[in-house]
Structure prediction request, 49 residues.
Amino acid sequence: MTKSVLLEKIEECREEMILLSDNHDLTSEAVISSSMKLDELINQYQKYI
Prediction:
């Protein structure tokens, strides 16, 4: 995965997590799952740096 594609996925996941947190508790399974996905993408991105 290229760096630019990874950045796009990070942004999409961040926006998804924000939308989920508007409709669910921050401790809900949906928000936590999205947060974990975002963490993984950020970790992948940091390997590029």
Remarks:
- The chain has a mean pLDDT of 96.
